Amino acid sequence: MGTLKYFAALAALPGLAAAQRAPQDVSAGLESLPIERMCDAEGAIGYKFGATDGPPKIMDMPGVTDMRLNPAFAPFERAGIDSTTWSNRIYAANYVARFADTAAALAAIQTIAARFERLGWSADRGTTDEAAAERTTMSYIAPGAGEVHLYWPAGAAGAGRGDGVRIELTRLGTEVTFSCRSLPVFADHVQEALGRLPDGIPKPSAPILPLPKRPDAALCADPAQRAELFASRPEDSELMRYVVQRTKFRERLVTWKMDRLRKSGKLTDEQMTRLIMVSLDSPAAAKGAKAGLELLGDMLGQLDAVVAAGRAKDETASCGAVVKLVELTEKIGAAVDPQWTAMEAAVDREAARLGIGLE
What we know:
Number of domains: 2
Helix content: 40-55%
Low-confidence stretches: 1-23
Strand order of the largest sheet: 3-4-5-9-8-7-6
Shape: globular
Radius of gyration: 22 Å
Structural class: alpha+beta
Mean pLDDT: 84
Largest sheet: 7 strands, antiparallel
Order of helices and strands: HHEEEEEHEHEEEHHHHHHH
Number of strands: 9
């Protein structure tokens, strides 16, 4: 469901391409970048690893948000704080910057890496993308050509490293991402994301959210309402919050109940997997899955329309594209709901058969 949540957020970001900032030639400023504030053994930009005071996110997706950085962090302008899926403990900070060209982006990575090495961090430099692919695992992406990972305390690198902090300096085109990650807390996050919850997690409660007003074509004809829509972030969009929170609740409730079954010791992981797969074979769940995939294809096409309208600086077309995207997001949520219903019913039946309480 993470992919759907990602698209839901994009639906609240009209003018996506137009909002991208111009690339910068700021390599000289990297020597004065406050790197020790961006990542150290304890945390990043004032947030401590393992603490539960991270800023709220509408989605569980990791990465950069609209958290703005002050000019001292240039060329990095935006940041994001990631927390574990269930216990809400901070495990990473992420920053992003765009450069004038690929050469400048690669040079920036090396400049930042060298500064951390002078502070005693050890470096793991990527050689080729092929070599990176061979080292990559389900929970670890090795550095590719020109990319660098750094470790504190200095020492072992790669997927087997489970202690300390890792910095990941990676590149996509001319965009550089700087990630600062606590490896022990990240390991907890991976377990939580796989549905293995810490003890003491309360049963999820249904969100109490009023049904918000849906944007429509009439909104796009009003310059003031258009401007308000364009200025909104995912966290500001009542409709996106409503759709995502409803879907998130169903997903979390099923995950919580499955964790209770697993912790009972009465079912193996293989039996748990079979239970869920059989539930998804029901006609209603299968129909919903098919409809969801078809709508997801429509959404991908609509995202292209959003980007194209943004590039053309056509506000009316951008607004119309976003309205359509919101409609598709709602339809996808409705299409996948029978799958969650089927899974929850299967878990409830099995718990009753085994005499396991789910309250």
